[in-house]
Amino acid sequence: MALIPSQVLRVAILLSYFSIICHYKALDMPAHQTYGGSWKFLTFIDLVIQAMFFGLCVLIDLSSLLTKGGDSREQERQLRKLIGLRDWMMAVLAFPVGAFVVFTFWTLYLYDRELVYPKLLDNFIPQWLNHGMHTTVLPFIIIEMRTTHHRYPSRQWGLAAVCCFGIGYILWTCWVHQVTGVWVYPVLERISHLARLVFFTVMTAFICVFYQLGEILNNYIWSHTGTHTEKVKGE
After folding, report:
1. Is pLDDT of 196 > 90?
2. Could you report the per-residue pLDDT of 2-23, keeping only the tens digit for each?
3. What φ, ψ does residue 210 adopt, rounded to 5°?
4. Residue 87 Cα distances to 122, 152, 182, 204, 208, angstroms
5. Which among 132, 143, 152 is positioned nearest to 213, based on CA atoms?
6. Measuring CA to CA, which residue among 147, 148, 166, 144 is closest to residue 211?
7. How confident is the model at residue 68 (pLDDT cuts 50, 70, 90)?
8. Which segment of 18-22, 31-35, 135-139 scores lowest on mean pLDDT?
9. Those residues with Cβ within 8 angstroms of residue 72's Cβ, 6 or more apart along the chain or in another chain
10. Torsion angle, CA of 163/169/175/177, rounded to 10 degrees?
11. Helix 95-112 and helix 193-223, axial crossing angle in degrees, nearest 10
12. Which of 187, 205, 22 has its CA nearest to residue 111?
């Protein structure tokens, strides 16, 4: 038996994301006052994705608890729809985007932090908040993957959805630059047009790799549990 029930873990993680988002939005940063606000940063978009995902997980837990022992086929059907949406979000958004943010941020940070997180930001963002945005995302999502089996869509459709997200964010970044004349990330200011195109292509490929890694990890974890069946009444 787990030391901490998975339902309690999900509530704790959801509350932590609410706290991180509220603290981040409360920061008096110049970048928040410019076009696009916080929404031009993939880190913030990822925080919203994670909060929505764990909010959905908590909703499913509550629904399972409230309908436990009931025999309503309609309630069971609605619950299965929520579980399907949760699994899709895990596969297409929560894991690949979260892992991508953690990997790319710390890779660039260790190489040259000025490319992605200038030292000036230390005056606005405390260390604990930085780690809440760029570090704990990955262990949180792995905990969820470890405690609950998620059914992935077909790889073809899953990769297509991830690519659409990646390309959509790239187009959004280009639009912000078109409007403001400033790139969202300093690294984009320092490279040529061709290098920028290569950079965007490589980043899109990376997020697709993280999708496949998530699928492999999910299958590996649950191939050793002896069951792939998830009961509607709860994890």
Report:
1. yes
2. 557 888 999 999 999 999 999 9
3. -65, -30
4. 36, 7, 37, 22, 17
5. 152
6. 166
7. confident
8. 31-35
9. none
10. -120
11. 130
12. 187
Cα pseudo-dihedral 102, 108, 111, 112, rounded to 10: -130
Give dist(CA 218, CA 214) in Å, integer: 6
Q: What is the number of other CB atoms lying within 10 angstroms of the CB of residue 228?
A: 10
Diameter over CA atoms, the chain: 62
Tokens representing 126? 């405390």
Q: With contact defined as beta carbons under 8 Å apart, do 145 and 221 qualify?
A: yes
Q: What is the pLDDT of residue 28?
A: 85
HEC states along the chain? CCCCCHHHHHHHHHHHHHHHHHHHHCCCCHHHHCCCHHHHCHHHHHHHHHHHHHHHHHHHHHHHHHCCCCCCHHHHHHHHHHHHHHHHHHHHHHHHHHHHHHHHHHHHHHHHHHHCCCHHHHHCCCHHHHHHHHCCHHHHHHHHHHHCCCCCCCHHHHHHHHHHHHHHHHHHHHHHHHHHCCCCCHHHHCCCHHHHHHHHHHHHHHHHHHHHHHHHHHHHHHHCCCCCCCCCCCC
- Tell me if 96 sits within 8 A of 162, measured CB to CB: yes
